[in-house]
J domain-containing protein (Artemia franciscana), 770 residues
Amino acid sequence: MAQKFQYDESGSTFYYFLLSFLALVLIPLTYFFWPRKKQEDPEKKIKECSCDRCRIKDGLLEKQKPLKNFRQYVIQSILICGWLLLVFVAYKAQQFDYEYANFDPYDILGIDIGASNAEIKKAYKKKALVYHPDKETGDEMLFMKLTKAYDALTDETAKRNWEQYGNPDGPSAISFGIALPSWIVEKENSMLVLLVYVLIFMIVLPVTVGIWWSRSIKYSGEKVLLDTSQMYYYFFHKTPNMILKRVIMVLGASAEFHVKHNSEIQERPSDNQEIPMLFKVLPQLNEKNKERPLCFSYSVKARALIHAHLSRLPLNPHTLEKDRIAVVRKCPTLIQEMGVCISQLMMLAHAGRISKMPNLCSLENAMKLCPMIVQALWDYKSPLLQLPHVEEDMLKHFNSKKYHVKTLEQLARLGEDDRRMCFRSLTEDQYRNVCKVLANMPLLDVQTKVEVVDDEETNVITAGAIVTVTVSLSRKSFSSLLNVGGESTITSVLLNEPKIKEEEVKEEKEEEEKKKTPVWKPKNKSKKGGAGKKASKKPSQHNNIVKAPVEQAPEEKKEDKKENTTPKKRAQAKKQTKKNESDSEDSEIEDDERDSDSEDSISQDEKSENKRGDEDDEDWDRFQNPLNKRQKALEGKSRISHSVHCPYFPEDKQEYWWVYLTDRKTQTMLTAPFYVTNLVDKEEIPMRFTAPLAPGIYTFTLCVRSDSYLGFDQFKDIKMDVKRAPELPKDHPQWDISSDEDEKKEASAVESEYATDEDDDAVIEDEEED
């Protein structure tokens, strides 16, 4: 049969193609981009603060919701239109024209099967008068079907073809349809199709890819401009010991604060009047600095807004306040990039690739700046000002001789009556807001474990070894320190601590018992001992069985001697009998030793099994920990922990932490700062570094810094006794492999040199006889 390619005239094949394409595109897009409503905690409003600044912040966030809602509405409308189009295409595909595939002339003419010729002609004429192309109600396609059906019932050849092949025209050629409608290739529509092709594939697609590429190459992985990162590298390398005020200057010079890169910031004519007014109010702004880009107008403006934010100065809500919100929103991400740049410079300087190494103070000043901006406080201010309704005039009540409260933890540990006396100038609602905020602040417990993972003795640290410091962070809140049921904080803590400790001890014992019984180890140890005894007897029986052929060997050799007539063969036989006798004596001695040691081995089996069980537990733990860490790495790093009370920060801020190891004596950093973004309850951070090359006792400092609160940083000293690394033995088997092989080769060469022709002939004769 002939094969024929043709375009889809009816459009049904194109509908199937379009249906499959829309389904493949819409299903994943709907899954990933359909807006989902977050389940809000019903008690969230009760726990949240309701101070004036928090209400203003909630109002700003509510204003941003219409934009987010509009984006969600646009996404929803696009997805709904796509699904409606999919349903329409599916409906059109169901309207496939089956009249040629299932051709039935009786059904087309509307007559019964077996009708006479007169009835066929009557029905044909009746419908032909209605559907003739010359009539107003005419239909050319339907008229052709009627004619074809009439011929199939009246013409003999057509009727025979219909009965045999199901088609009055006879067997048709196999046709392969192209899933495109025929109007695409018509001459009338050729220019339109060409314009659409050029518009999509030669204009729209290259432009979108070019825009995406030009934007992507400007940003780093943390969505920070590469120009900003290069500026950080330059200034921190130029000034290794950078003070806090200069860090603010460098932060203000970030390219993100330029109008070109940030549409939220605007340059207004009113800036020429309002910004000089800030210069007079804000001291130490250093607006006359001539360094580029620190002297640029956008940089000076951003610096002034940061200083005004830290001083909590009120700004014009229609002009500078909008710019302050845009600047402050970007600061945490930029400060994190600063920390990355400084740590990389310190590592490069430690490796000897650059001459100047940034000081540790520069890194810590950059980290200190982040909670300052989040809480809108200078570092020399009291951390108690992070609480709502607390002003500087009230600090005299906390610093009195009776209370002497300087930190938030000391305030949480006060009794209820004493705490209320400190806030005696506040109303009940205001005091309730203070307690809500104080109860949600973090109470962090830091534990460390120092070990050498890849060594047999994990607790022994040798010079040059890779040390792993596992930092365990457990986060609670100050609510555990506040009063419970009207009792004072001290009594409640004292009453609750013994119970908590007993429960923790019980849980630790249960976990240790579970760890001691691995999955592959049977529970009944008594059966193991019995099996060990039986197994110890079996080798002795096996040794007795082996003795028999050894004792009978000399008798067999005597019979062989009679057959050996030549003197050479007799000499060889004597040598073999002597060797067999010596081997039999050695085997008897070994059997006696095994029998004597069997009883001792039975008693030592149980001890060895217990040791093996403990070793298996340790191996299982070592094997399981990397698997859990790999699973966490594959799952991705979460950025949701706890919401921070920060009424002056324009967005919802999550609570993050920096963790790193330092050497305070040399002012160097041992490990790069690890940014913990998922500390909800507990988290473990492994930190690895190389131990000092010289043996001795060293004291390193573990630093845990908050990027959200002031006064919550923790510093913990870690003492390490670094011992001298053991020297490798000179006669180590690892280094004698080549020498052993050489000796074997020399011995074989010597034997081959001193072997005579007679010996070779004797060996050949023995092999032939065998």
About this structure: Residues 567-635 form the longest helix (69 residues).
